[in-house]
Every structure is written in C-alpha cells, then in structure tokens.
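EI: anyone free to look at a 146-residue chain?
SC: sure, send it
EI:
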Amino acid sequence: MPKQASKKKPKSPNREVNAADGSMFRDILRQIRRIPHGKVATYGDVAYAAGYPGAARQVAWALHGCGRTVPWQRVIGSGGKILCTGELGFEQRLRLQGEGVEFIGLRVRLEQHRFHFFGSRKSGQGKKKSGRELTSSGREAPSKNR
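SC: here you go
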C-alpha cells in the first residue's frame, strides 16, 4: 500500500492560536525582558503587550520553560499578588524587594511599580503649559472659570 503524503496545515495568520511553532512564547518572553529593574507587570499585562490578550496562562507556561534567562520575578498576578508558592514565591518576593519594589502585606504596590508597556497612564491630569491645561491630544482644554 503506497504511503499517503502527510498534509501539513499552513501556519495560521491568526497569532492567537499559533503557539505550536514557539513564536507565541518568544513574543511573551521578549515582552518580559522589557520590564525594567524595580518594575513589575501582571501575567495579563504581558499577554496583552505580546499581542495575545486573554492569554495570561500561556505567560505562565512560557515562564516554566525559560529557566533563569528572563527576569521571571517581575511577573505577578493581578492585583499585585505573588502566585508562586513555597520557596519559589519567597525567592520572588526577596528578588523584588532587592530591586526596590515595595509591598503592602502580600501585594506589590502596583500604583507605584507597575510597568506600562505602552507608555505611562495618568488619568484625570492634563499637562499644563503656561498656566493653561491641555488635553491628552495636546490641545488647550476649555477653561473651567468661563
């Protein structure tokens, strides 16, 4: 009986499901390497920045296989909680404290130490130039005193 040629599926242009070739994990690890000393990001933040929104669990899987080549300690759970258990969780906390990251109880002070992959987000405060408040687009905001 002749062998049938195996049909390979073409690579999907949809990045959300294309983890088989490892590109998803490479994208995730590339984003983790961007997190600077003294800053943290949540699993969900990393997934979103890598182009895979909603793939927080895959971020954890990518970290499982990376060894110690990326700053793994800078990735935390939502709300600032360390999700690693036992000695690894203790090591993560010590590493973060060594980088100057502050904790309130068991949680990282996210408002101070969260890394924003797409620039800083400061809500409710426009930039001021010569006494006039500007909108986020750089235009002059209407005066509140009029």
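EI: Strands lie at 41-42, 75-76, 103-104, 107-108, 128-129, 132-133.
SC: 👍
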